[in-house]
Amino acid sequence: TSMEDAGESTRGCENISDSEEDRCSENDFGTSKLGTKEFWDDAYQKELETFNDIGDVGEIWFGEESMSRVLRWMDKAKIPENAAILDIGTGNGAFLVELAKHGYKNLTGIDYSPASVELARSVLQAEGLTDVTVKEMDFLSCQKELKGFDVCIDKGTFDAISLNPVNTNEGKRQYVQALKDVLKDNGFFAITSCNWTKEQLLDRFSEGFEFVQELSTPTFQFGGKTGNSVAALIFKRVH
Ligand SMILES: C[S@@+](CC[C@H](N)C(=O)[O-])C[C@H]1O[C@@H](n2cnc3c(N)ncnc32)[C@H](O)[C@@H]1O
Predict the structure, then answer these.
(1) Distance 34 CA to ligand 1 centre (A)
(2) What's the domain count of the chain?
């Protein structure tokens, strides 16, 4: 038995097996503290203190490569520099920094954790990137406050929402609805997830979205089976 991981962090992943959701009702989906606001408030409060002390931005969820692979896709898809881009659940804002350094000029990050918002703003400021908007906002109740985005990026946020111990099913539905509302027609959605397989994501984002492509992610072998530790998919908003 071998477990190969090309250096990507899967910390925080619940390692739900492929068929888990088929076997269980949606309610039985594993929940955890990673789905609570308290967890993220606490985590980013600590990361904010560390950043202020030693300038370390903290955890890059799923590793640097998880950002580069989306950026490579954006280059190939010729997403223009002035495209309106939303980072859903931006955390420390590291993706916003990468996007800005890559030349993107119309960037917004949101997060429901005030400590995350403060951290992301501090990280951007330290990089001299003053033209990026970061808002404290719950994506599930952002009612029409956000709209007209060309590209929405999610790295680990739909996962976190899926792990919420309360209102998990409702949360997932609200997420899909909010995403439909904020994206322009033909806008793109780039999701990186460690809790859902490609098939489950295709199923979740079927109505109102068209699958564009899968970005290749490192594979592992375990017990004679081969799988991916994360799924990275691109969807397009369609009517
Ligand atoms: C696994 S972290 C990923 C952070 C960041 N995207 C990254 O890749 O480093 C999940 C993030 O989602 C945020 N989040 C969870 N639920 C949210 C919601 N309903 N609205 C906005 N942000 C949310 C958390 O505060 C946290 O920053």
Answers:
(1) 10
(2) 1
Specify whether the CB–CB gap between 226 and 219 falls below 8 A: yes
> Residue 42: in which H helix or E strand, if any?
helix 37-54
Specify if 63 maps to a domain.
yes
Residue nearest to ligand 1 atom 13, measured at CA: 89
Range of the domain at 60: 20-237
192 CA closest ligand 1 atom index: 8
Q: How far is the CA of 159 from the centre of ligand 1 (A)?
A: 9
CATH at 30: 3.40.50.150
pLDDT tens by residue, 43-92 = 999 999 999 999 999 988 999 999 999 999 999 999 999 999 999 999 99
CB burial class (10 A; 0-12, 13-18, 19+) of residue 136? middle
* Cβ atoms of residues 33 and 39 within 8 Å: yes
Q: Is 146 within a domain?
A: yes
- 2 located within any domain: no
For residue 1, how far is its CA from the centre of ligand 1 (angstroms)?
34
> 14 C-alpha vs ligand 1 centroid, how far in Å?
16
Model pLDDT, residue 24: 33
Ligand 1 first shell, C-beta below 6 A: 40, 60-61, 89-91, 94, 110-113, 116, 138-140, 155-157, 160-161
Cα separation, 8 vs 172, in Å, equals 26
The answer on pLDDT for 28 being more than 70 is: no
Q: Which atom of ligand 1 is nearest to the CA of 138?
A: 20
